Amino acid sequence: MAGSALVPLTGGATADARPAHSSAAVVTYAAPQPRTRFDLNTGWRFTKGDVSGAHAPGFDDSAWAPVSTPHTWNAEDGADGGSNYYRGVCWYRRHDTLPAALAEKMLFLQFAGANQVAEVWVNGTCLGRHEGGYSRFRFDATRALLPGKDNVIAVRVTNAHERDIAPLSGDFCFSGGIYRNVSLWAVDKLQIRMLDHAGPGVYLRQSDVTSTSAQVTVTTKLWNNNSTGRSVVVRTVITDAAGTVVVDERSDAHLVAAQAGSEITQNVPIAEPHLWNGTSDPHLYRASVEIHDTTGADDKVTDVVTEKLGLRSIAVDADAGFFLNGEHLSLHGVNLHQDRARKGWAVDDADHAQDFDLIEEIGATAVRMAHYQHDQKAYHLADERGLVVWAEIPLVDTITESSAFTAGTERQLIELIRQNYNHPSIAFWGIGNEQRSDNGATNALLDALAGIVETEDPERISTYAVAGGGDPALARHTQTTGHNVYYGWYTGSKDGDLGRWADDRHADAPDRKIAVSEYGAGANTTQHALNPAKPDPGGAFHPEEYQALYHEAAWKQLASRPYIWGTFVWNMFDFASDRRNEGGRPGINDKGLVTRDRKVRKDAFYWYKANWAASPTLYITSRRWSRRNDVTTEVKVYSNADRVTATLNGRSLGTRSSGDHIFIWPDVTLEQGENEVAVTATIDSEVHTDTVIWTLAHGAAGGAASR
Questions:
Q1: pTM given for the model
Q2: Which of 210, 445, 483, 547 is at 20 to 30 A from 662, Cα to Cα?
C-alpha cells in the first residue's frame, strides 16, 4: 500500500520565538529552525501476536487494525483483575513517502516510549533494538529511508517478562505498546548530536546561583557526518521569559573531523538572574544553541537546539528540610503514575495537562514521578507550574544478578539523566524503590547507580525509596532517603505511629536526610461509613471516610516535623494493578485522591486542598453518601476559612471555628426524604457556599450510620 506524504511540523528550535529586532534598551531573538520534525502518530496498522515476516516491505498488513499512537494493547485487560493481562509480542507497521528534499539530510526515528523491548525495521533493514520501556530512544534511519519513495516502517514490541530488564515486578500494570509519540527528525549532517542516549545534546549545568549572579556551563555535543572536517563555531543565546536577550556568546572556531564527534563547553555568567522559584514564580529562560559551519568563506547555521532554563539552587538539611534558592520550602505533594481509565498508559498531552491542573489545584509543591521515567510533557509541565520533582528509574522490588541486568539498569539511569538534564523542576534522581533483598549484589548495584548520579549530575541530589521505616544498607548509598510507610493502613495505627516513627528515626540518625516517599490508604467512592475503623487493606470494603480520617491524622503528624524534607501521598490518582482485588474494584489500586477517570475528587483531596492551597476551599464531606439509612449522622466540612456556618433544611446548625481546617457538627438528625445540608463561609472577603442532598429512607432507624 502506498504511503501518504509526510507534512513537516515545527523544527527543533522554539516555535514561539519573537521576531528579531533591537532598540537602545531591548534586544530580542528568533531562533533559526534548520531541523524539521514529522509527526508519525497517525496511520499505523496493528496486530496482536508475533507474525513471521512482518518486517518485510511487501508483507500484507491490510487485515491489521488501524491505530494511532500513543497506543497500548492493555488499556482494558490491564485493569480488570486476575493478573492475566496480555504480556507478549505485537506488531506495528506504517507506510510513508518522504519529501525528496530530505535526500541531503540525516534522518532519525524517535520513539518517546515503547514498553518494553522494541525492534525497528525500515524497508526491511533492522535499525536496532531498544530495551527498557520508559525512556526515549532514536535510531539513525538515514541509509534505510528513501526520500521521494514509499517507505515501510515496522516495529515489533513486546512487554513479556525479561529477566535482564528492569522492572522485574511491581504493583502496577506494565502496559505494552508504542504508548508515547513517534516522530521523524531531519537534521543537517553537521549537528548537535542526536544519539547521545537520545538526550538533547545540549546540557545546561548551573552553579553558584544566587539572586545577584549565576554561572551556566553550556556543554554542546557535536557530530559531523560529512566526508570532510568542518570548522565550527557555537553560538549560545539565552533569552528571558519576555524574549529579551540576556546572553549572546560565540565560541572560538573548533575543527570537527569527518565522521566524528566533538564537545564544546562555554562558561556563561548571568547577572541578576530571575530565579525559578517554585510555584510562586517558575520563571523560565530559553537557551538556544546554534551550530555555525564556518568552513571557507561562509557562516551557515546548520543546527539549533532550544532548551528551557530555570535558574535555582537546591539543598536539603537534616534538621530543617528542603531549601530552594536559600529559602525553606515545604515539599508536600503526590506520587504520579502514567495511567488512566480506558487508556492505560496511552495518555496524550491533554491528559498530562489535566493531571497537572489537578495537582496544582490541590496545592502541591512537589511530585514524585513513580516508578519510572515519565513523558517529556510531564516534566515540561512541572517546569512551567513550579513543581519540584523526584524522578526515578524502574528498579523495583528485585534484581537479577547478571551483567546484562546491571548494564541495562545503569543505561536506564543514564538515559533518565541525559534526557531530562535541563529540567529545572527535577531536584532528585531516584535510583530505585523497595528492593526486597538487602544483599551484597543489590547493594553493589545501588552503589554503582549512586555513583552514576554523582558523575552525570553532581548538582542534583540522589535518593532512594525504602520499604518501611527501617535503616537497611539499601538506604545508605544515596544522599537522601525516602521511606514508604503506611501506618494505619498496612500496619499500626493512623493516630500517632507515623510521628513516633519519624521522631525515633531522626533521633537515631540525626544526620540522615529523610522523606516520606509514600503514605496512603484506599477508598472506593461508592462505599461509606461514619467514623469507620481501619478496614482490611485486601478486603472488599474501603469506605471513603476512612481514607479521609487516615490523611487527616497523617498530615497533622507530617506537617509538624520540618526535618522530613518531603512528603508524597500515594497516590494522586487511582491506577491499574491487575493483580489486586480489593475495595470492590478488581484490578485497581484505589489509594488515589482522585478516581482513575479523573471525574471524582475524593474527600481526602479536599482535606489537602484546605491545608495546602491558597485558593478558597469549602467542602462538605461524605457527599456521595446520598442514600441514608440512619437518622443520626454528622456534618463534616473541610475549609481554609476561620468560621463556617451550617444549615439543615434551612434550619441553622450553628457556626463553628477551627484551627485545623476541620469543622464538625455531631449528632445531626435527618428527616425522612430529602435533606439539604448547606454551609457558608467568608474567605478572602468573599462569601462561599456548598450544598449536598442526603436522602433518608422511610422507616430508617436511629443510631450510628453504616455502609
A1: 0.96
A2: 483
